[in-house]
Amino acid sequence: MSPTLTNGFGSKARVDWDSIRLDFPLISGNDLVYFDNAASSQKPKAMLQAMENMVEHSYANVHRGVHTLSQEATDQYEAARKTVARFINAADDAEVVFTSGTTDSINTIAFSFGEAHIQPGDEILISGMEHHANIVPWQLMAQRKGAFIKVIPVLENGSLNLESLDSLMGPKTKLLSLVWVSNSLGTVNPIPYIIQKAHAYGIPVMVDAAQAAPHMPIDVQAIDCDFLAFSAHKMGGPTGLGILYGKRALFENLPPYRGGGDMIDRVTFEKTTFQGLPFRFEAGTPHILGAVAFAAVLNYLSGIGMRQIEERERQLSHSLRCQLKADFPEIQLLGTAPDSVSVVSFLVKGHHPMDVGVLLDNQKIAVRTGHHCCQPLMDRFGIHGTVRASLAFYNTEQEIARFLLALRKTIRLLR
Ligand code: PLP
Fold it and tell me: Are residues 338 and 212 in the same domain?
């Protein structure tokens, strides 16, 4: 089965969301309200079918064998890369590297870009709403290279203080690495505007799209980012697989992050020369089954249409926010930026988020509680954590109603 080429935008005018839900065996088969999609999303049958198909008909290691089966597996793996490139509108398939996830993608650039371009005294700009995956790799690199981290502040409503950009960007700023959609607040940052601004200062931009790629069309050429990272498992794909996009001009001159098989041109005991893009950054046997299954998921999502998915998820999360605001005075919403998607974060005043999460779980509602790997953001608001409901397109208004009933009961029990 070779994945068809398709981009993420889709064109279907009407989607039958009830029948879409049946594509997800875990949630269609029981009465669990799964609102923990930002942590990891449920898997469509298309993913399982693609894995099964490869296991039954065309599995072997890639790029190595002269035998037919290995060539078939290689063709499918490279077709998967093409599908990803098309999904994010990359200019060239070679700009798409398979990694193990967003964390791995960011670490790759932090290491490789750091080795190539960072001198003592240089600065890396991030924001106050980053996931730890977009903080710690830069800190490790900064410690190694004698560089500094600067932080774009977060306003009270959970949006970025864009007025601070001019004072934070300058000749010492060597890279901006920024989250597109906050996993804690749901805030959608104005990425195209910020990239344009950074480029005006000559600063390349890495985008953490872990929470953007599942919820909206991504066009890397339109936003003109230099690097972009996301994880398959947050958008219906398998765990252990991620994407690192890099614009060729900058990417192809970076040194490798990991060494091993497949990424080399020639090895002697004295010296090794490396392959070009994308193999230079794919040391060792890749997640072959994962990549092929992810391509099938991307085709499935494109079949629905990423614009339709975005619209549906904006509607659902807007509805949840409005009802919480209107009917629950006991609740404090965290993050009320004008633009948000999927994530609704809140506190039940005077109560620990974990108590709320456990009582909701007793009523078959799955939400996430805690700091969501954003401790500096929690410090900014002077809290330890929140309750986070994160919605996907397969969720429904009926589930929101059940969630609100369960929350009402939870608040009564806590009193
Ligand atoms: N960035 C953001 C915004 C996230 O939400 C997450 C995961 O929750 C990550 C990075 C890390 O993703 P992964 O654990 O898949 O590498």
Answer: no
> Is the CB of residue 333 less than 8 Å from the CB of residue 346?
yes
Residue 3: pLDDT band by 50, 70, 90 thresholds?
very low
Residue type, 176: L
Residue 6: pLDDT band with limits 50, 70, 90: very low
| pLDDT, tens digit, 9 for 90 and up, residues 286-334 | 999 999 999 999 999 999 999 999 999 999 999 999 999 999 999 999 9
Distance 369 CA to ligand 1 centre (A): 16
Tell me if 231 CB under 6 Å of ligand 1: yes
CATH number of the domain enclosing 21: 3.90.1150.10
pLDDT at 65: 82
Ligand 1 atom 4 nearest Cα: 210
Same domain (yes/no): 364, 278: no
CATH number, residue 211:
3.40.640.10
Q: Packing angle between helix 102-117 and helix 136-145, nearest 10 degrees?
A: 20
What distances in angstroms separate CA 75 from CA 2, 80, 261, 295, 364, one per listed residue?
8, 9, 19, 13, 43
Same domain, 310 and 164: no
Answer whether 369 contacts ligand 1 (Cβ < 6 A): no
131 ligand 1 Cβ < 6 A? yes
Judge whether 399 lies within some domain: yes
Burial class (CB in 10 A: 0-12, 13-18, 19+), 383: middle
Residue 164 shares a structural domain with residue 205: yes
Of 273, 302, 331, the residue at which a domain comes to its end is: 302
State pLDDT tens for residues 372-391: 999 999 999 999 999 999 99
Which sequence positions are flagged as catalytic? 373
CA separation for the pair 20, 290 (Å, rounded): 22
Closest Cα to atom 5 of ligand 1:
183
Query: Does ligand 1 lie within 6 Å of residue 133's CB atom?
Result: yes
Distance CA(240)–CA(8), nearest Å, equals 22
Domain boundary among 266, 281, 302: 302
Residue 44 belongs to some domain of the structure: no
pTM here? 0.96
What domain count does the chain have? 2
Q: How far is the CA of 190 from the centre of ligand 1 (A)?
A: 19
